[in-house]
Amino acid sequence: MEYHSTGSPTARLGGSVPNPTDLSRRLLSTQQAQDAAESTSDDGVTTPTPRSRLNSATRFDISPGTPFWGSFSPAPRSPVLIQCCCRREDCQNLLAFLSSTRSMEDELRLAAEVGQALLQKHEMYQKEMETFRSALEHQCARSEQKVQELDELVRELEDTQRVLIRERDDAQRQRNLLEET
After folding, report:
1. Record keywords: Coiled coil included (predicted)?
2. Fewer CB in 10 Å around end: N or C, the chain?
């Protein structure tokens, strides 16, 4: 699978987001393979498969209580069988509609894949930010503790300085008294 070049905006967002052109090609080839499998059997005779538009008896029942969503698996085509009002299989309006629908489904799948990639990248960034925040909080706590220790040391040094100044002043007074006598 091709990926975006390293300088592209998509690559900067994650680098692992698949190339949309490649995804479209992959979806189209899957669709063509399924169309071929649905239209011909091993003996070359065209037979409708359960998902074929030729089999109008197959319909999805989405009534309440039907486990439709539990059995649904993503496929490159819509599970809904559509027939034109003229009942012709080669109707240009129907073919254009089906082509448009497939194109929209492909774009939706691509958007979902890109969305999933972005979501994974976002979750990764959140984890990194949480780790970074935790490290910063730990560093701030250590810094605050160091500041408190240094403040205490400053107080002790100021007290020692006051004591030494008093002792010096007392010594000068005594020296002055001794010099006067």
Report:
1. yes
2. C
Is the CA virtual torsion 127, 129, 134, 139 positive or negative?
positive
Chain centre distance of CA 91: 42
Name the β-bridge partners of 61.
none
Q: Which two tokens stand for residue 50?
A: 């359960």
Query: Is the CB of residue 78 less than 8 Å from the CB of residue 105?
Result: yes
Q: Which two tokens stand for residue 149?
A: 């220790």
pLDDT digits (tens, 9 = 90+) for 59-95: 444 444 444 334 444 555 545 667 778 888 788 888 8
User: In the beta sheet, which residues pair with residue 3?
Assistant: 18
pTM, entire model: 0.39
What is the C-alpha to C-alpha distance for residues 38 and 71, in angstroms, rounded to an integer? Answer: 20
> What is the distance between the alpha carbons of residues 56 and 75, in angstroms, rounded to a whole number?
19
Helix axes of 92-180 and 20-39: crossing angle, nearest 10 degrees:
150
Q: Tell me the CA end-to-end span of the chain in Å, nearest whole number.
A: 104
Beta-carbon-side half-sphere exposure of residue 11 (alpha carbons within 13 Å) = 8
Give backbone dihedrals phi and psi of 3, rounded to 5 degrees, phi first.
-125, 165
